Amino acid sequence: MRRRRGSAAAGDAAVIESSWREPEQFAVLFDRHAPHIHRYLARRTGRQVADDLVAETFLAAFAKRDRYDLGHADARPWLYGIATNLVHQHRRDEARQYRISQAAAAEPEVPGHADRVAADVTAQAMRTLLNAALAALPDGDRDVLLLIAWEQLTYQEVSRALAIPVGTVRSRLHRARTKTRQILAGTGAAATYEEITSNE
Amino acid sequence: MNEMELLRELAQETPLPEPAELDAARARLVAAITTDPAAGRPGAAPEVTVLQPSASTAQPAEPPRPPAPAPVRDAAKLMYGGAAGTVVQLIILLFYVGDIKAYHLTLGAHPLTTAQLVHLRPLIATLAIAFGLVLIALWLWLARAAGQGKNWARILSTVLFGLATLQLIGLHTAGQVFWAMLTWLAGLAAVWQLWRPASSAYFKSAKALRSRPPSQISGP
Fold first, then answer.
1. What number is the average pLDDT over the span A177-189?
2. Binding-site residues on chain B for chain A (CB distance < 8 A)
3. Residues of B whose CB is below 8 A from A55
4. Closest approach of chain A CAs to the CA of B4, in angstroms?
5. Overall domain count for chain B
6. Is residue B150 domain-resident?
7. CATH value at residue A151
8. DSSP classification of residue A3
9. A27 lies in the same domain as A76
10. Interface test with B, best of A22, A177, A193, A197 (most B CBs within 10 A)
11. What is the per-residue pLDDT across B98-123, written as a single tens digit (0 to 9) for each?
12. Nearest by Cα to B138 from B88, B93, B83, B186
């Protein structure tokens, strides 16, 4: 049975299917997902690069829409997979973005109450370390970690996005989390941060 | 608070983009959609604008173009920079022509005499100015055409860049070498930007858009 085309109620698969005959329908997919894909790209590469990459993501998706598996109603994993591949082509931009985030996190906040200032300083230190940890992760591990932590994808969705088995998703996530924890714990800042945030 | 929660907290620092921030990306997608072979068939979305002839020329108006991606915009800027560098080179060259010594120039195997040089100097200066102006015009023309998605512009730019590499041979003064190298590097960077994947996609879609009949081109 054919589903309604292009309406907000229709799933992404129906939109993509109708775009095979009516390419204009593909714009519905853009309107639905572009803001979140842009934010994901901006987090990883910075806003300026994201402006271009979000366009390239949807252009690539449009070009290969005829190969989309209509068994998947939600196209987000597919789009995140394309976006992630594009991020890999901009490794230098991504590395720069983490450096910028580290530098921004290192800037002191406005002065205030001593405890508050101490908490802010520790939180900033944590952000610096987090960005350093992200920069230090292998690409594949970072992809899995960020798609799950930032974009809230499930293991199955990440598996689809990156075209890897679910078992590999689990092992990469485990490795990425362990390494991130090690980097955070290595300075002793994590414990301090937990103390401060748990007292708030 | 574990590392996943910390990461989510970090992510919250990046807000969703404003709708206007996505306009350029959407326009590029719409441009690709309009060039798709399936677009414009019966049953397709009927947002079709027939282009009206321009009042002054009675020619069909230029079809709408997708916005140029960043690499093409950067390439155009570099080419405008190349034009500016050529202006500086031309000025240096004119100083050099004024200061040139007879033994620098030869006619066949024989150095020119001072008298011959004095006679030829206006001609050399005129040729230098004409050549420089042609080069500047080329830079500007190709920058504009490349920015408009004309594929021949990037091909011609690449060919001319290859020829410009030969121009580096035979420079005399340090100033000439410095500015020529700077201009050459601008050309190299521009050519590289023009052949990046995003640029290729833009040139391809712009070409397809131009080749479609006006009645099939959607309005902006």
1. 79
2. 1-4, 6-8, 10-11, 14-17, 21-22, 24-26, 28-30, 32-33, 36, 38-39, 41, 43-45, 47, 69-70, 197-198, 201
3. 24-25, 28-29, 69
4. 6
5. 1
6. yes
7. 1.10.10.10
8. P
9. yes
10. A22
11. 666 555 555 556 666 777 777 777 88
12. B83
- Counted domains in chain A: 2
Question: What pTM did the predictor assign?
Answer: 0.55
Q: What percent of chain A has pLDDT over 90?
A: 43
With H, G, I as helix, E, B as strand and everything else as coil, classify residue B71.
Answer: helix
Tell me what percent of the residues of chain B surpass a pLDDT of 70: 68
Q: B12 to each of A40, A42, A142, A171, B170, how far by Cα in Å?
A: 11, 12, 18, 26, 58
CA–CA gap between residue B124 and residue B127 (Å, rounded): 5
The CA–CA distances, whole Å, from A83 to A38, A191, B215, B219 equal 9, 35, 34, 28
Instruction: Tell whether B188 is covered by a domain.
Output: yes
B33 vs A27, A50, A145: nearest CB? A27
Which domain, by its residues, includes A142?
95-200
- A39 and B30 within 8 Å at the Cβ level: the answer is no
Residues from chain B contacting residue A26 (CB–CB below 8 Å): 29, 33
